[in-house]
Amino acid sequence: MLTFSIKQGNIAAAETDCIVVNLFAGVTTPGGATGAVDQALDGAIRRLIAGGDFTGEAGTSALLYTQGALPAPRVLVVGLGPAAEFDLAGVRRAGAEAAKRLAGIKGVTRFATIVHGAGIGGLDAAAAARTLTEGVRLALYQAPQYRREEKAASITSCTLVEFSPEKLDAIEQGVVQGEIVADAVCDARDWVSEPGNVLYPAAFARRVEARITDTGLKMTVLGEEELRELGMNIFLAVSAGSEREAQLLVLEHAPAGTEDDAPLVLVGKGVTFDTGGISLKPGAEMWRMKSDMGGAAAVMAALEAVARLDVPKRVIGVAPCVENMPDGRAYRPGDIFTGINGKTTEIISTDAEGRLALADALGYVARYEPRAVVDLATLTGAVSIALGQGMAAGLFANDDALRDGLLAAAEQSSERLWPLPLYDEYKESIKSDMAEVKNGAGRFSGVGSSAKFLEHFTEGYPWAHLDIAGMAWASSSPNPFTPAGAVGFGVRLLIDFVNAY
Ligand code: BES
Ligand code: MN
Ligand code: ZN
């Protein structure tokens, strides 16, 4: 367990295993807290800079031993890069770099840090504290472990030290928010990490329920009987080959006075394991398809955070959760199904199952008369071919304001989105001989035609689709605050989006 605390005072006096200060690139005589520490160390930081050992470049740090000159035995100086380019993303990175470096030192279990950016950086103190907390907590994330010997948590305490008493309240508030946001991202990472035999639809529902009991969120879980009564046969088709029951998870955040407002609705693809079904995937790397519920994880976790942050808006999260398996009862290529709103689809590939689960979910959410609907889905391999693996999520929208709102949230959260077109000509590729649409497409229209398929099932509301297939799982660490594996992509993006839109 990692706990955060706040302290007023001079960081040089902190009694802890390591104190963390910072340096902008190009500075030769540090000021502020770093200057005070340098003076106490008789100019040791200035000598490091003069000797060329440390330049303040972002992503670098220097470790010094205080030899009794300070109560703490170690000082870590983290580079912030050029002062003119420094922003909240830099705070997150700096916090993460420090946490990662200290986690590698056995003697360090506690550290104290200044709030990067809240002093000479000129950033809002609450925002800086929130982002620093996120960076530290997310960098130290460990996936669930299935080993007999327990892996000890290396760092157990982080203290944010601030000299100015008037900034303490803002910093306190920022830390609380940062913990809520980081906890939600870590929940999403946990759910994505868990293997398909552990986290199947009903188990996922229980996991979510356990995390939201004290939030005021209203949770509804629909099972297959209810889904059948609703006519969600396109979604149910995906589940036919699985022994595990499909579930539609619904979380509603409606603070007093907003109950009748048109809600923002978030929808996440929740395929807890995707074998491809009868259109079976190749075996190599198939294990990664345990991350095919990354959209649902992001949506459920974002709702959890939105409720804990008391966002004064009505927000609803919906996750169609299902396992895609080949079996004697499985659906097949050529099958035709009618969904919740009477629309029909022909199945070309049972491996294009995500758009089927979403089709009925997009029909289901029409009942809320939403202000806007945003879906997140690990939908196509093609989005990674188009944009590059881990580069950005593809963004499709039928509404300019919604697209701009999402792009603004992407900028703020450093969770990249890149706009892609919803050309009418994509319709050609999803034309079926017998049904309204088909779920497969030619080789040259993979990501666009998948979005066009989804658009067919939307019902008049402003809608955006984020294809996060390249973002949910990272084979190597994509940034200092994200270890390799489950990324939790979209949680911070959705929180920022819901807050601002
Ligand atoms: N879950 C996959 C997409 C995916 C691929 C996610 C790689 C993450 C990494 C999706 O269900 C799928 O199988 N899509 C097919 C669609 C095709 C059959 C039209 C694809 O992209 O190959
Ligand atoms: Mn698939
Ligand atoms: Zn899938």
Record the SSE blueprint:
Blueprint: E1 3-8, E2 18-23, H1 32-40, H2 44-50, E3 61-65, E4 74-79, H3 88-103, E5 110-114, H4 125-139, E6 157-162, H5 168-193, H6 201-212, E7 218-222, H7 224-229, H8 233-239, E8 247-253, E9 264-268, E10 270-274, H9 294-308, E11 315-324, E12 336-338, E13 344-346, H10 354-364, E14 372-377, H11 382-387, E15 393-397, H12 400-413, E16 417-419, E17 437-438, H13 446-457, E18 463-467, E19 473-474, E20 485-486, H14 491-500
Bound molecules: ligand BES, manganese (II) ion and zinc ion.
Write structural notes for this entry:
The chain has 501 residues and is of the alpha/beta class. It folds into two domains: 3-165, 3-Layer(aba) Sandwich (Leucine Aminopeptidase, subunit E, domain 1), CATH 3.40.220.10; 183-500, Aminopeptidase. The chain has 14 helices and 20 strands. The protein has helices spanning 32-40, 44-50, 88-103, 125-139, 168-193, 201-212, 224-229, 233-239, 294-308, 354-364, 382-387, 400-413, 446-457, 491-500; strands spanning 3-8, 18-23, 61-65, 74-79, 110-114, 157-162, 218-222, 247-253, 264-268, 270-274, 315-324, 336-338, 344-346, 372-377, 393-397, 417-419, 437-438, 463-467, 473-474, 485-486. The strands form four sheets. Strands 7, 8, 9, 10, 11, 14, 15, 16 and 18 form a nine-stranded mixed β-sheet that branches. It has a six-stranded mixed β-sheet with strand order 1-6-5-2-4-3, sandwiched between helices. It is elongated and about 80 Å long. The two termini are 34 Å apart. The mean pLDDT is 97. The structure holds ligand BES, manganese (II) ion and zinc ion. The site of manganese (II) ion has 4 residues, from loops.
